[in-house]
Amino acid sequence: MIEYRLRARRGTWFAALMTGVLLQGCSREPVPVASRARVYSADVTGKAKACEVAKVAPADGQTVETIMKLDDSRGWCGLPLRQSDAKPFDAGLLVERPAHGSVVIHQVGDDTRVDYTPDRGFTGSDSFVVKMLPGNAVVRISVNVVPATPGA
What we know:
The structure is a single chain. The chain contains 2 helices and 8 strands. The chain has helices at about 1-25, 35, and strands spanning about 50-55, 65-70, 75-80, 90-95, 100-110, 110-120, 125-135, 135-145. The strands form 2 sheets. A 5-stranded mixed beta sheet has the order 1-2-8-7-4, with no helix packed on it. The longest helix has 25 residues, at about 1-25.
C-alpha cells in the first residue's frame, strides 16, 4: 500500500511538472517568419556547374514564361519563386512533364524552388509547366541543356 502511494505521488508530481513545461512553451511570442526560414547544405548541394535562369514573379492566375540554361554536368538548375506578398507558395503541381529530365518542387528558405535535372547524357531542348498554389499562377519553363565545358 505504501509503495502504491509513493508511485501515485510521483505520477502527480511528474504530471504537474510537464503541464508547467507545456504551458510555458505556449506563452512565448511567435517567431517572425523570416527567422524561421533555413537553408541547409542539402538545398544547395548538387547544383549544375552552369545554371542560368531568367527569374519571374508570377501573379495569381497569370501565366508566365521563362528560360533555363544549364550544362549536362548531372546537376540541377533551380528557379526560385515567391508569391506577390513575398511568401513561398504552398505547393506546385507539375502540369506538363519534361521529356528528358525530372522536376522537384520544394521550399528552400523563403522561396519555393522548381529544380530541373536533365537525364544522364541529354543535351538539347526540353520544357515543362508548373502550376503554383495558392493563386493558380502558371510557369512555363523552356530548358536548354548544353554540353559541359571540359575542365570547368
